[in-house]
Amino acid sequence: MARNTEHAHPGRKVLVLGGLLLGGLLVATTLNALAQDEDKGKTTKEAAPKEKPKALPPRPPVPLNLVLANKSQDTVEMVKTINEKLEADWKANSLVPSRYVDDYEYLRRASLDIVGRIATPKELADYLADPRETRRSLLVERLLSSADYSRHWAEMWTNWLLSRAGVFGRGLYHDQTSTWLKEQFALNRPYNDIVKDLITASGKNTDNGAVNFILAHVGEKTPPARRSEEGEFEMVPITSRLTRLFLATQVQCAQCHDHPFSNAIKQNHFWGVNAFLRQVERGGNIPMRRQDGLMTLELKDNTSVADKAVVFYEKRNGVVLQTKAEFLPSGEEKRGPRLTQGSVGKNRRLDLANYLVEHENFPKAITNRMWGVFFGRGFTNPVDDFTDQNQPSNPELLNDVSSRFKHYGYDMKKLIRWICNSNAYHLSVVANNTNDKAEHEAHFSRMIMKSLSPEQLFESLMVATHPEAMNSDEKKKLREEWLGQLVSNFGDDEGNEVNFNGTVVQALLMMNGEKLNDAISRSNGTVDQIIRRKPNPTALINDLYLAALNRKPSAAEVNSVVGKMQLRPGFNDKSVQAPYQDLFWALLNSNEFILNH
Q: What are the contacts of 520-528 at 24+ separation with CB within 8 A?
């Protein structure tokens, strides 16, 4: 259950277990302390012994009084809009927002959300050196300018586009797409242009990683007898993924019958979208497994097949119907836009891309998805399913933010800046007695805990345990090895949005991992470097907390560590690093490290 403790004396197993218990309870201890702080000053009336004390209404949080570092018109306008709309919603629903987080917790939250990892020691020092009133807003600007911004969002979108499963889930094809996306995010290309390029991409994946999106989801081959009329592939998976990712409309529910939860989506709509894609062909074969060797693939269009852009589909009663290429209707329209007269090959996909980005759901879907990334849930839950039964919790705010996002050119950094500077993004996860029910989550009067993705967990462990940058090839190899285990134990193979559901088994798998133990005990690692500075035990504990959790320990935590693990000069241990390695190991295995709160 404990990590390898050969370096320690026989009593170390007990100490490690105590350290592990301390690490596992860090979040609970912290959140309990936060709740006590929030309730500080409250009084309750004398009650009978069996009568439960009645809690007084919570106090509103003390105003943040933050100053925007970016004073552009769109930032000032949209931060104000988000604040006012949410505050009106809280008032209408008798909700008192939770307290605001302190600077340390905001640093860690924003770092994980914007660049996909915890903060480095230098970033922490720079942050604390900034004026208090602009500190958080300046942090957002630095993170948006960081090289890790494009890396993180490329990883996120590659998983959404390709999933983490199958031949495209990890490895060469996945890396090709991630590399292409990283370039797009580094250039801050408009979101609508990125989507258009994904839908219209052509060529070899060695030259253009964007082609892997369609190539990964072409589906089954059309029966040979129908191939000249309907194309090489049925293109069913990509039809569903396009509308789900970019319009939050799950048309797969209408593949075999009219959509059961959305009156606007009929079976012919699924096949109408599908018909735009029937001239797509793939050069090269996909192996069954990654280890079989991956050959170069090519996406091209065969204009000699599916010349009428017609697809045949079967109703539940056995009647076979046909439909021509026609996109989903938008708004109150009864029919969607149809294929441009004479359009063939790539131009059919260009029609599809143009119709998709002009659909009313397009700006709403990405705004809702991004809101879900930063707040733990979107205006709808799940974020990718707009139906009659899954209406937005605050439609006016969703409409306002999405329409302004479109107005300002689909600039992803602007959208992130608006969200991260809003008051709601600074709220604690600790609930009060007005917002502690599951149904209150849709009003964003408190933050929702989010589990780290496998990629965030890996990058954060690297930051925590490797104070000096690793060789890029070495890190890539280690990343592939770690993610193989982390995806299996902590992630979702399909790249879907998931909530934290950590278990003891998962925790043990991480704790006993040889690679984590090696990273902690490596020479010139975090523990080794901190000890070389030869501070006193209190300073050592402080630095380890900052490295792992991006915060200082409380006095009670320091006393508990010193008492339980006996971190003191003269401790009978074969290695001076051993007790500190055990503490660091416990911190990295704590819920506080695995969660973004």
A: 520/3, 520/465, 520/581, 520/584, 520/585, 520/588, 521/577, 521/581, 522/465, 524/468, 525/465, 525/466, 525/467, 526/464, 526/465, 526/466, 526/467, 526/584, 527/577, 527/580, 527/581, 527/584, 528/577
Does the pLDDT at position 504 exceed 60?
no
pLDDT, tens digit, for every residue of 181-214? 999 999 999 999 999 999 999 999 999 999 999 9
Write the burial class of residue 556 (CB in 10 Å: 0-12 exposed, 13-18 middle, 19+ buried).
exposed
| More confidently predicted of 519 and 50 | 519
In which domain, by residue range, is 352 found? Answer: 189-359
This prediction has a pTM of 0.89
Residue 290 falls inside a structural domain: yes
Burial pattern 587-597, b for ≥16 Cβ within 10 A else e, equals: bbbbbbbbbbb
Provide the pLDDT confidence category of residue 510 given band limits of 50, 70 and 90: low
Q: Per the domain annotation, does 275 fall within a domain?
A: yes
Domain membership flag for residue 241: yes
For residue 444 the two structure tokens come to 């964003």
SS3 563: helix
Q: How many domains does the chain have?
A: 1
Is residue 333 one of the residues assigned to a domain?
Answer: yes
Q: What angle do CA 76, 442, 37 make, to 5 degrees?
A: 80
